[in-house]
Amino acid sequence: MISVKGVDTRGMQHCETTALGVLLRHQGIDLSEPMLFGLGSGLSFIYWDSKNMGFPFLGGRVKPFVLTRNLAAGLGLDLQVQETTSPRRAWQNVAASLGADRPVGLQLDSYHLEYFSSKVHFGGHVVAMYGYDDQYAHLVDTDQQGGAVSTSLTSLARARAARGPMAAKHRSFTLTVSRNPPSLSSRIVPAITACAEAFLDPPIANLGHRGIEKAGKRVRTWLQRTDAPQRDLPQAALLMEKAGTGGALFRNLYRDFLGECTQLLDSSHLRTGHRLYTEAATLWTEAAALIAKAGESGDAQCLAQASTVLCELSRLERAAMEALSRLGE
């Protein structure tokens, strides 16, 4: 059996920040999950729908692994990423890291993991691996998936080899802290303003505050958009609140990040952003509840109310990000 010594196997609420937390704690850096998420400029929004999709998708964060790259760049971490089409080489890459007493991050399709409670294909799932034996891989996943968990080596190989939307080619990665890392407080403003600028000026109308407004207009049609509203609308609400988002489509995490930052920086713009994201988080939870209720009851009025909430959220988050974008002035 191979097992990295001294690994803190705490699970968090979101998969990528959970894995980052494991890798960084092993390097001696212990940051809260909101701080990991915020320093990685992780907040975003996407409304996605197309003819080949069964139901629209609402996303509240940047693409998988962008958060990791952002965090590594901001904190001056050495991020080593390995990808390959060869399952044999992919396993050798992981085994070499673990043999050198280093936990390793993996991006894979959660559908194939035996402990996973919800069997849905998602190629952007991230876990930390800290050991293995003849039959099982030992991983750290989110709190809701069990934290320190195990899955068979066969299932892990299938998960890593899976292809599809957001999947990577057997991606594995490690992080190394530099000898002279930048101070935490010096990285807060660049991380927040980069996130704000992307949110305020999205390249297409499906993203950022424009995407939230678009979702507000389209959500009114969701009962007609599906043949199974009792399944699809509550599922959409569940993804907003509980599927690794930390609640309120990642707005709870960003609210708490901004709250931590107000203890480190004295800025009226920062306090305004924190106050507005505190309001936004509550409204996202309200929107999710209305969407779920519409699916369960078939009441279109619930979707009309959700539409109003989402349009208010577009305005509210735009105002929050406009305030936060001025942090660098």
Can you offer a commentary on this structure?
The protein has 329 residues and is α+β, with helices and mostly antiparallel strands. The protein folds into 2 domains: 2-30 and 78-176, Cysteine proteinases (Cathepsin B, Chain A, Alpha-Beta Complex); 184-328, no CATH class. The protein has helices at residues 15-26, 33-39, 66-75, 87-99, 153-161, 184-200, 208-218, 222-225, 229-241, 251-262, 268-297, 300-325, and strands at 2-3, 43-48, 57-61, 78-82, 104-108, 125-132, 136-140, 148-152, 172-176. Helix 6 (184-200) crosses helix 12 and helix 9 packs antiparallel against helix 11. The longest helix is centred in the C-terminal third of the chain and has 30 residues, at 268-297. The termini are far apart. Residues 155-324 form the DUF4872 domain. Residues 14-142 form the Butirosin biosynthesis protein H N-terminal domain. This is BtrH N-terminal domain-containing protein. Pfam families: BtrH_N, DUF4872.
SSE layout and pairing:
Elements: E1 2-3, H1 15-26, H2 33-39, E2 43-48, E3 57-61, H3 66-75, E4 78-82, H4 87-99, E5 104-108, E6 125-132, E7 136-140, E8 148-152, H5 153-161, E9 172-176, H6 184-200, H7 208-218, H8 222-225, H9 229-241, H10 251-262, H11 268-297, H12 300-325
Antiparallel strand pairs: 1-6, 2-3, 4-9, 5-6, 5-9, 6-7, 7-8
In summary, what is this structure?
By secondary structure, this protein is an alpha+beta fold.
Question: Which characteristics define this entry?
Answer:
329 residues; alpha+beta; Cathepsin B, Chain A; seven-stranded antiparallel β-sheet; two-stranded antiparallel ribbon; 50% helix; BtrH N-terminal domain-containing protein; DUF4872; BtrH_N
